[in-house]
Amino acid sequence: MPLNKSDVSSSQWLSDSELKKLQNRSAPKNGRSFSQWLRTYEGQKFYVSALFLLIPLALLLLFTFVPAANMIVYSFQERDQFGVDPEFVGFQNYITIFTDPDYFITFKNSLYYLVGSVIQQALALLLASILCSKIRAKGFFKGVLFFPYLMNGVAVSIIFLKFFTKGNPPLTQEGTLNSVLMTFGIDPVRWMDAANPVLVNCCLVFVSIWRYIGFDIIMYIGAIQSISPDLYEACDLDGANPWQRFRYIVFPSIKPIISLQLILAVKGAISVFEIPYIITGGNYGTSTFVIKTIETAFKKKQVGLASAMAVVLLIIIIIVTLVQKFLFRDESEVDARKSAEKKRLKMSGKGAL
Amino acid sequence: MAMTKRKLKEQARSGRLLLTVLQYLVLITGCLAVFIPIVVILLGAFKDGKEFANSGVFELPKSWSFENFKTAFFEGNVLLGLRNTAVILIASCAGTILTGTMTAFVIQRFDGYFTRTVKALFLLATLLPNISMQVTVFQIVSKMGLYNTMFAPIILYVGTDIISIYIFMQFLSQISTSLDESAIMDGASYPRIYFSIILPNLMPAIATVLIIKFVSIYNDFYTPQLYMQDDRLLVVSTVLYKYISSTKIQWEVVFAGIILCIIPTLVIFLFLQKYIYSGLVSGSVKE
């Protein structure tokens, strides 16, 4: 059967509006009833948008924007859980957050996690580049290192409660870490020591690295594998050693991802919640900003102050996101320009051929 | 001349050998760091109470009895937790897939001021810090009468999941609009296009979303902890948390509970390894 040429091309070359006109032609131009209009593509767009977006938009407003607006209003009030006679207090809640040492210490604690995530990125990069070289049982190593990321957070926390236990020999046994140390002849250490918050925080950061590093490893493996093999070949021809190869080929190629990860680490460090909440309950000087927020809202029932804390967190996140957008906008623009250039060159090359 | 060349070669070879040894050493250390904490839990889960208190953490259990696992599963509520988690998981996955694909379809296919505004609203919502928001979300949820029901987490998992919408939109932008156009030429309506063209073509995206949803809901602790205090509504995370927040902790049973709760994750990971890696990474690059 000979194909009707105009039919085939029309589906590809007609614009949206022209197609619609084509469809509307059958409908009478004037005196269309509403139900007739609904059947046109214009009408369909209307009712499909309305029907399809009704529930998602309602949920978005109800569980995201209304609470966000409430949060801002509450943050200027002193109010309890049920909102019985709230009292306007101006910026008092915000002043408390930044002056009361009980609240301000949480910012200091997030620095532990910030340093921790820098270490985490470095370790992940090391492991990822090893996993990208010629190694046996790659899949096994990758799987083992990644699996903690999938584990239930409560399970991880309990595992590390046991890990850091300081035993009381005749009654209770030493925990995992102390047992390992004792096989090397090192005396057991009281890890979860209320008198030593620095040590406790470092332990918690260790758990956090243990749990989340697998994800970064996978990210970096993806990034390293997307580097063109030509670069490696050129590198081998020049007789570069593995360190030089990493320094001059791998590192520059994945630098954008590393800096993105480091920026996201700021967001992560201020939002730490689960691991310290379960392991220490925020005691021993390990409270984080989010733990403090939740405690203030649901234990102390000071919803106004807690809302102010949530607003502060939101502002920090917005600032970090803006920095990230600002830093990475340029690069993506440059990339877009480069690829456009390449395309043009290719086209002109084709023309010349 | 030839001598030095050979020497150099030998040097290079021994250097490479040293590097390989170092590489394996780092990897094995990493794996031990992952394994040791978990192995201790596994060994402890097989010991009875007395043996647990009197033996070192690395000592093998005298007999491999599954008594603790039985206790954790039936009396320790692991079974209940798994069942409730499964119900919440299935309901929220179904909800997310339906609302997510519909939203993505409208935003991606109908370009206009309205859809662009909607898209911007969803984008804005990604900024809001999830756990801190519960301070005010809690009041809305309890005003709606959803406190202490499974609807609370389900509706939150469906309603505040914006990453899925992004994944669907990304996949949709790769499905050519000429497919829709040819369907329009054949006289198909938009709902028809959604159900018979878009939805089937989005299957890989749906699989990705299902994986991300499983990991995040199965492991979520705070939403159920906050909204479902009732003992009949315990999920996996809150079952485990309840163990350690009680005054008398039977560690060997707790350990058995942990192992039981990890098994579903491990099985899924072993079978879907490749998809999990790519799925989770694609879920993270929404920014």
Mean pLDDT of chain A: 82
- What is the CATH C level class of the domain at 101-328 in chain A, in words? Mainly Alpha
The CATH topology of the domain at 101-328 in chain A corresponds to: MetI-like fold
Structural class of chain A: mainly alpha
Helix content of chain B: over 70%
Q: What order do the SSEs of chain A take from the amino end to the carboxyl end, as H and E?
A: HHHHEEHHHHHHHHHHH
Number of helices of chain B: 14
Number of strands of chain B: 0
Largest protein interface, residues of each chain? A-B, 96 and 94 residues
Annotation, overall tally of beta strands of chain A = 2
Element-level helix/strand string of chain B: HHHHHHHHHHHHHH
Mean pLDDT across the residues of chain B is 87
Distance between the termini of chain A: 36 Å
CATH architecture of the domain at 86-240 and 273-284 in chain B: Orthogonal Bundle
Radius of gyration of chain A using CA atoms only: 29 Å
CATH superfamily of the domain at 101-328 in chain A: MetI-like
Strand content of chain A: under 5%
Strand content of chain B: under 5%
Walk me through the structure.
The complex is a heterodimer of chains A (353) and B (287). Chain A is mostly helical and 353 residues long. Chain A contains 15 helices and two strands. Chain A has a two-stranded antiparallel sheet. In chain B, α3 (67-75) packs across α14 and α11 runs antiparallel to α14 (251-284). Chain B has helices at residues 2-45, 49-54, 67-75, 78-109, 113-125, 130-143, 151-159, 162-174, 177-185, 190-201, 203-219, 222-227, 236-245, 251-284. Chain B contains 14 helices and no strands. With 287 residues, chain B is mostly helical. Helices cover 79% and strands 0% of the residues of chain B. Chains A and B meet through α1, α4, α6, α7 and α8 of A and α1, α4, α5, α6 and α7 of B.
